[in-house]
């Protein structure tokens, strides 16, 4: 089922300032940036390490690009900080179905496009001990 911590999502008001903090404080460099219009965020993926399953672990820094995005609403309520944890899986569809079969609410009927061409879904935080949890199947590295 789940093979690694894919990333920790961190919501921020100023992506450039937050990237600079992680660069100057910990030496983490940006691996990938993009704007995800569907999610309403501008993001930077900071690669932490490679993993044994061929994937990697990242910090995902998220800045909202519109006020009605989920991250903007979360920031307004909670301020900057850890937004979610994401677990990597080779098959987000079957793992989401398996988790749903255990009574955990899956937030998307079908997985959506995530960072770097991945396929993602989220699990309801009220069913996961208060933690917004994401399941991620990474895109084939040859595709980007």
Question: How would you characterize this protein structure?
Answer:
- It is a single chain.
- The chain has three helices and eight strands; from the N terminus they run E-H-E-E-E-H-E-H-E-E-E.
- With 144 residues, it is of the alpha+beta class.
- The radius of gyration is 15 Å and the shape is globular.
- The model has no long low-confidence stretch (mean pLDDT 94).
Write out key terms for the chains shown.
144 residues; alpha+beta; eight-stranded mixed sheet; 3 helices; 8 strands; 38% strand
Lay out the secondary structure.
Layout: E1 4-11, H1 15-26, E2 30-36, E3 41-50, E4 56-64, H2 70-78, E5 81-88, H3 92-100, E6 112-113, E7 119-123, E8 133-137
Parallel strand pairs: 1-4, 5-8
Antiparallel strand pairs: 1-5, 2-3, 3-4, 6-7, 7-8
Q: Kindly, what is the distance between the CA atoms of the first and last residues, rounded to a whole number of angstroms?
A: 25 Å
Number of helices: 3
Largest sheet: 8 strands, mixed
Helix content: 10-25%
Low-confidence stretches are none
**Beta-strand percentage?**
35-45%
* Shape assignment: globular
Instruction: Give the helices and strands as they follow along the chain.
Output: EHEEEHEHEEE
| Radius of gyration from the alpha-carbon trace, in angstroms | 15 Å
Helix-strand category:
alpha+beta
Q: How many beta-strand runs?
A: 8
User: Average pLDDT, to the nearest integer?
Assistant: 94
Spatially, the strands of the biggest sheet line up as: 2-3-4-1-5-8-7-6
């Amino acid at each position: 089922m789940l093979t690694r911590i894919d990333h920790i999502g961190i919501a921020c008001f100023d992506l450039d300032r937050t990237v600079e903090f992680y660069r100057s404080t910990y030496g983490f460099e940006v691996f990938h940036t993009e704007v995800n219009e569907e999610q309403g965020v501008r993001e930077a993926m900071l690669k932490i390490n490679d993993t044994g399953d061929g994937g990697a672990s990242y910090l995902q820094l998220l800045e909202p690009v519109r006020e009605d995005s989920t991250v903007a609403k979360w920031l307004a309520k909670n301020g900057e900080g850890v937004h979610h944890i994401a677990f990597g899986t080779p098959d987000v569809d079957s793992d989401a179905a398996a988790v749903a079969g255990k009574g955990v609410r899956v937030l998307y009927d079908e997985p959506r496009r995530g960072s770097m061409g991945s396929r993602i879904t989220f699990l309801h935080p009220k069913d996961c001990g208060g933690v917004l949890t994401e399941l991620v199947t990474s895109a084939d590295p040859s595709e980007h």
